[in-house]
Amino acid sequence: SRKELPDLAVEVIFSSGSVEDLKKYLALGVSEVWYWQDSQLTFYSLTAGQYVEVANSVCLSELKSKELASFVNRGLAESPLTIELDFLQSLE
Questions:
Q1: Residue 32: left (phi > 0), alpha (psi -120 to 50), or beta?
Q2: CA atoms within a 13 Å half-sphere pointing along the CA-CB vector of 84
Q3: Which of 20, 43, 57, 76 fits a disulfide with 63 by CB distance 3.0 to 4.6 angstroms?
Q4: The pTM of the whole model exceeds 0.70
Q5: Given the DSSP bridges, would you call strands 8-13 and 32-37 parallel, antiparallel or unpaired?
Q6: Residue 45 has what DSSP assignment?
Q7: Sequence-ordered alpha helix ranges (H) in 19-62
């Protein structure tokens, strides 16, 4: 069966928006929200009815926000294949 709401949302902010937008995800009951802004990634987890900033993803427990951001930020300077291989090795 298909799930109605996602467990994870990713918000990319280029010109407008902020963590104040977490309210819309709270209303939907999304359990985890990632914000990408100014080359930084921040994870928020829904805990006891509010979002709390966390270093590790709850949905993907081995994933750390700072590590993922470092790989994404390498995208302009390096081969995507090299970045992908390095990322996969970091998860082992």
A1: beta
A2: 3
A3: 57
A4: yes
A5: parallel
A6: E
A7: 22-28
The pLDDT tens digits along the chain (92 residues) read 667 788 899 998 877 666 778 999 999 999 999 999 888 999 999 999 999 999 999 988 888 899 888 888 887 778 888 888 888 888 77
How many whole angstroms separate alpha carbon 23 and alpha carbon 84?
A: 33
Could you tell me the CA-to-CA distances from 49 to 34, 46, 52, 86 in Å, in that order? 17, 6, 10, 36
The pLDDT value recorded for residue 55 is 94
Tell me the H-state helices in 15-79.
22-28, 65-73
Q: What does the DSSP 8-state code read for residue 27?
A: H
CB count, 10 Å around CB of 47? 11
Q: Which two tokens stand for residue 51?
A: 């979002």
